[in-house]
């Protein structure tokens, strides 16, 4: 990792090259120091652009600054702090300058801003920066911005920051003020993110019932920021919970390779979760989190749960076990999440809120309190507190793990047993994602698709019931297309970082029908992407 860190400081990105510019995706800016896509200059430029945005938006409250356990994160955190201190921005960092999980930063922003929501102006509002590439390989770096609502910034905000940051890069940072690291560390105020978060967990999860059930629980923080949080949870709530891995190693050398041989801390991957799966029989239920703790992995006697399956379980359970929640609250899902969720929500007479890929689409609903739950197929979700207030408006992998324990404590069923009861009621879905090579011309063609682009009337033997290029929940562009029938669907969208497009498909008629769906989808796309 020495070479990675050395390159972070020594390699200078050239903003004249598009590949080396700041580029915000669905979860902030990510990159590699070796490839000059995540370097000191990027952090200086992005942080100054965030300072400029704060001034424009009249944010005068503190900025909550967190970082995870990736090799470059501490260095990037110090760089951000240098710029924030130089601009005299009040900054709150974890006590002892420790790392900080994404949901803790989101929760802290919301806690600070809640009393200010009735104010006529926003001058006291807080926001946050989190240094993390999420579950990406150890050598990667990332940074994301969460404004006053505590969740991932909207596209108009990230576009503004991106444009501003790249202008600073083009000017070689000549107008970005920077103070020495020692001065910057002295400027930061220490804040006990972990203590505040852990003490309030009973607001969102029934911790008392989990305590009384005395379940045997296990958790693997996968070398990430969830480690001190889980340790604090054990101490505070006296749970019968074993933190099975307390190692923090920037190289993540303890990690088994993912399905493609790369080291990737993906708690939704059976390959990456192999260490916990080996000892699953020691526990009633066990969990995993990724390095910034915004994702969850749920393990019981049947192995690692498919994230889609667990989302459906959570939704069915929450609708029937949150009596304080009013019936008008909507349930959010991304359009590539399982249609099992649609069937569960409809069975309770609730309204489904279906949005494009990206957790940012759930932020307003959670923040304003009209969306009870928002979840995406990649094992990220959050929910309202038990009395219907915002808990976190970014993904919270820790709370979702605790919710799995609550479900078992209350119902006596493991999450996978609970899911089996759903398949008995609604049928069993079969789900798959396939990646297909994609030319630049095909990527561009995705942007021009419309409902009229599909002239076929059937898909895998069933009549087509809808062709979507905009999400039905909020009308936002999908960035691709979704075609549905009564018994299945497929969705396709181009990758933002690789030369391929992703096809998601699901069938309620079996694996053979699922293969037919994918085959038909591939043929259809070959026609409409010409």
From TrEMBL:
Domain annotation Alpha-D-phosphohexomutase C-terminal: ranges: 475-518
Residue span, Alpha-D-phosphohexomutase alpha/beta/alpha domain: 22-167, 196-303, 306-425
Essential cofactor(s): Mg(2+)
Pfam families the UniProt entry points to: PGM_PMM_I, PGM_PMM_II, PGM_PMM_III, PGM_PMM_IV
GO molecular function: magnesium ion binding; phosphoglucomutase activity; phosphopentomutase activity
Keywords, sorted A to Z: Isomerase, Magnesium, Metal-binding, Phosphoprotein
One of the protein's GO biological processes: purine ribonucleoside salvage
PROSITE patterns hit by this protein: PGM_PMM
Protein family per UniProt: Belongs to the phosphohexose mutase family.
Protein name stated in the entry: Phosphoglucomutase, alpha-D-glucose phosphate-specific
Species: marine sediment metagenome
Taxonomic placement: unclassified sequences, metagenomes, ecological metagenomes
């Amino acid at each position: 990792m020495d070479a990675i860190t050395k390159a972070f400081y020594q390699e200078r990105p050239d903003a004249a090259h598009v590949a080396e510019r700041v580029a915000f995706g669905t979860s902030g800016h990510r990159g590699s120091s070796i490839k000059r896509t995540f370097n000191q200059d990027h952090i200086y430029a992005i942080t100054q652009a965030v300072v400029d945005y704060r001034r424009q938006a009249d944010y005068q409250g503190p900025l909550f600054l967190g970082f995870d356990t990736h090799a470059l994160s501490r260095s990037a955190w110090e760089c951000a702090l240098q710029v924030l201190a130089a601009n005299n921005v009040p900054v709150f960092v974890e006590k002892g300058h420790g790392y900080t999980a994404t949901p803790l930063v989101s929760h802290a922003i919301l806690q600070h801003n809640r009393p200010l929501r009735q104010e006529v102006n926003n001058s006291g509002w807080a926001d946050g920066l989190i240094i993390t590439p999420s579950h990406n390989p150890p050598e990667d770096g990332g940074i994301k911005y969460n404004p006053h609502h505590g969740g991932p910034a909207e596209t108009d905000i990230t576009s503004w920051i991106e444009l501003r940051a790249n202008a600073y890069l083009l000017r070689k940072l000549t107008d970005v003020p920077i103070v020495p690291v020692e001065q910057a560390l002295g400027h930061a105020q220490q804040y006990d993110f972990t203590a505040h978060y852990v003490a309030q967990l009973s607001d969102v999860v029934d911790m008392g019932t989990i305590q009384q059930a005395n379940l045997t629980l296990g958790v693997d923080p996968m070398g990430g920021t969830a480690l001190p949080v889980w340790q604090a949870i054990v101490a505070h709530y006296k749970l019968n919970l074993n933190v099975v891995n307390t190692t923090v190693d920037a190289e993540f050398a303890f990690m088994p390779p993912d399905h493609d041989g790369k080291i990737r801390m993906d708690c939704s991957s059976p390959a990456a979760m192999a260490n916990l799966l080996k000892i699953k029989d020691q526990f009633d239920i066990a969990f995993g989190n990724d390095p910034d703790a915004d994702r969850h992995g749920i393990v019981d006697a049947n192995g690692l749960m498919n994230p889609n399956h667990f989302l459906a379980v959570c939704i069915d359970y929450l609708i029937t076990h949150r009596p304080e929640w009013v019936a008008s609250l909507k349930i959010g899902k991304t359009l590539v999440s399982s249609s099992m969720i649609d069937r569960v929500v409809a069975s309770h007479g609730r309204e489904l809120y279906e949005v494009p890929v990206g957790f940012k689409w759930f932020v307003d609903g959670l923040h304003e309190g009209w969306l009870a739950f928002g979840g995406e197929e990649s094992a990220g979700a959050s929910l309202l507190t038990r009395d219907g207030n915002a808990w976190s408006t970014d993904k919270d992998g820790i709370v979702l793990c605790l919710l799995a324990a609550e479900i078992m404590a209350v119902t006596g069923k493991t999450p996978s047993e609970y899911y089996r009861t759903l398949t008995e009621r609604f049928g069993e879905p079969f789900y798959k994602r396939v990646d297909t090579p994609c030319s630049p011309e095909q990527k561009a063609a995705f942007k021009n698709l419309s409902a009229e682009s599909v002239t076929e009337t059937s898909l895998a033997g069933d009549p087509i019931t809808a062709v979507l290029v905009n999400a039905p929940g909020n009308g936002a562009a999908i960035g691709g297309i979704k075609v549905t029938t009564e018994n299945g669907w497929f969705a396709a969208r181009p990758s933002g970082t690789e030369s391929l497009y992703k096809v998601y498909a699901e069938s309620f008629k079996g694996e053979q029908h699922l293969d037919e769906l994918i085959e038909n989808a591939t043929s259809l796309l070959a026609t409409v992407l010409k």
